Backbone:
């Protein structure tokens, strides 16, 4: 149902040891910004798995209102939906666009970035069959290594053998403030309390769901970036990746 244009990773990576890097964490912890920067520095492909859940949720909302849909309808919707993630052209990276997202051929890159879609995404993400379909596509897209994929279950379910797993955290207040600022910049005036409620509600649903809940993988490295900027966090992860690359080079290749 979905596919990604798993393109070109240019440059700097060590040709012999391309890692699979999984970055998981709650909303607003900085996954997208940090993962994209890490991928840029290493010359890896960046993939935002959450964009796929958001795109499907947008379709469900547009079709008939998510609340009216049964699980069976949402599963059928997922099976008949084509979602494509494309690496962002450099000029759009500067504007903060992460992956470009196409839903059945239409560009929904901006349309999926609303609080309504975020909440709906975390609802469709509770359905096991929907997850199976999306996870399969995520695995295909990252199969060659040299990829930084971020989401909620990348280190636990999508790539349990990833060579580097990061669990990115920040305090709920900091995460809400970050998200609030983004809304302000788009001219959307919400109160900080509203955004904090939204973030907490989604964290709860994501952490407590039965299928693939948001949990730190047992071999995941906790990085709390409450008091760190994007660049500093990305540099730390790149340092960990370089160490891992060296370790793997010593033992003669990838483990996954
Ligand atoms: O993908 P996720 O929801 O985890 O977070 P994000 O979209 O990468 O980051 C949310 C907002 O926080 C963005 O506007 C980032 O620029 C900002 N951010 C930050 O100010 N400092 C960090 N260390 C990480 C993210
Ligand atoms: O950027 P932010 O952290 O706010 O959310 P996102 O990564 O765009 O993901 C939106 C929703 O999709 C999350 O709240 C999760 O419910 C779901 N999701 C998931 O279940 N598994 C993933 N690998 C990625 C996202």
Residues:
């Amino acid at each position: 149902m979905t596919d990604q244009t798993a393109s070109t990773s240019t440059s700097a990576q060590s040709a012999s040891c391309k890692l699979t890097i999984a970055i998981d964490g709650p909303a607003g912890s900085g996954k997208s910004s940090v993962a994209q920067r890490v991928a840029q520095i290493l010359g890896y492909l960046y993939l935002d798995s959450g964009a796929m859940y958001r795109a499907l949720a947008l379709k469900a909302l547009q079709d008939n209102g998510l609340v009216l849909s049964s699980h069976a309808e949402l599963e059928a919707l997922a099976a008949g939906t084509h979602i494509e993630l494309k690496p962002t052209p450099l000029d759009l990276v500067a504007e903060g666009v992460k992956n470009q997202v196409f839903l059945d051929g239409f560009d929904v890159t901006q349309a999926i970035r609303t609080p309504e879609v975020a909440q709906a995404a975390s609802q469709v993400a509770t359905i096991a069959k929907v997850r199976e379909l999306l996870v399969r596509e995520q695995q295909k897209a990252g199969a060659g290594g040299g990829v930084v994929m971020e989401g909620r279950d990348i280190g636990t379910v999508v790539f349990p053998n990833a060579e580097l797993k990061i669990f990115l955290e920040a305090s709920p207040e900091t995460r809400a403030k970050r998200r609030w600022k983004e809304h302000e910049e788009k001219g959307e005036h919400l109160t900080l309390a509203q955004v904090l409620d939204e973030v907490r509600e989604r964290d709860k649903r994501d952490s407590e769901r039965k299928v693939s809940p948001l949990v730190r993988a047992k071999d995941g490295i906790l990085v709390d970036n409450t008091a760190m900027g994007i660049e500093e966090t990305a540099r730390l992860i790149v340092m960990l990746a370089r160490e891992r690359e060296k370790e793997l080079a010593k033992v003669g290749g990838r483990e996954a």
Summary: The pocket of cytidine-5'-diphosphate (ligand 2) is lined by residues 27, 31-32, 49-50, 53-54, 118, 121-122, 125, 151-154, 202, 206 (CB under 6 Å).
